[in-house]
DNA sequence: GTTTGTGAAGGATTTCACAGCA
DNA sequence: TGCTGTGAAATCCTTCACAAAC
């Protein structure tokens, strides 16, 4: 686990590959499910079967963070779930704002999957003055000029971008400007952000466009 | 480009890595944009700047499929766009069906981003008898029992799953049963499908849950 | 001069395989 | 006996660097 830098000093903590971090939430999900089914122990093989992954990969992934299992037995389901939630910082709530209250933004704020996982959408914004002031799913839509103020006041840490492509980069710039470091982007572009900001894009058209390659 | 099998025979055509296939639509998108801005030539460096990728990676990716560029000049924008669309089979239309006409399904069928890219949603399905028969965005919602028939009749090649998690696997089984080979899945699970079926999942909660790892 | 296409090198990720522990 | 944790090996993917072409 320890590596040496070019200057001879030692890294005791290895940087965990991003692919590994992206898989951890999958493990959490299966563990939650297993737990609700009354199972208290799970093996890397059982986890792998659920997720279509090799047991070795799961054990390797977990080994970046510690030794959570017992040989001959497997992992304690709720203990491992707690550990992973803590590693991913899912043991607290995170506040989010949605920018762009068209059809997509409305679907996002009414999606019932965020809140149970601790992601609370506390504010909604739009550029269009016809929409500003409306009440959507219990949120009063605000003007984007209010963004920075609201981010501070409501301790918003996540920006969800659901504006059309032609306004996406300016909205992302505004989010960055307001101090947001994590952006979930639904607009079909590769946004320009500083290295300190993490953008994750969701783009169903890109998914379809690569699937067609494999189609008859 | 040629490799040798264990039996001594030769593979003349290398399998293109899936990561490469997933990047091709990004290139298509930038090329379309460049073209509409009146540029007729583009270099791997310019492409890389747009997409935050190295020029070498782009050239390597393209080299899996042929030699499209001219040394000292770059790539002809519209020629490369055509080539990539042809490789990805985007030079024809693809018909799709949406299963699950709740909020998410309604957002999907009304999303204006699919049709311009040649993805036509021709049918909508739901299990709920209260919804079956309704007209949503010009589509008459059908019972899932009609799925296989409609898939054949309308030449549907893509299934888009937007049902809640507790019905997702059965809907996916029904799609597989009806002969669908490509599924875009919005439900938060890792579906079980035969190797011959390609599933691509869109899961904003997973995205958020890995982003929190990097958050202060 | 510029930029491609591509072997070779380098780096990252996955899988293997087994010692060690319950 | 059963399953983890992990070095080593294997595989996969990216980047380098330069000859060749325009």
Which keywords apply here?
Arc Repressor Mutant, subunit A; 2 domains; 7-stranded mixed β-sheet; 8 helices; 3-stranded antiparallel β-sheet; about 220 residues; DNA-binding; 12 strands; alpha/beta; elongated; Rossmann fold; homodimer; disordered N terminus
How are the elements arranged and paired?
The structure is a homodimer of 216-residue chains.
Chain A: E1 3-4, E2 10-11, H1 18-36, E3 41-42, H2 44-51, H3 55-63, E4 69-70, E5 74-76, H4 77-87, E6 94-99, H5 103-110, E7 119-126, E8 135-136, E9 139-143, H6 147-154, E10 156-161, H7 165-177, E11 182-185, E12 198-201, H8 204-211
Parallel strand pairs in A: 6-7, 6-10, 7-9, 10-11, 11-12
Antiparallel strand pairs in A: 1-2, 3-5, 4-5, 8-9
Chain A binds a DNA duplex (22 and 22 nucleotides) through helix 3 and strand 4.
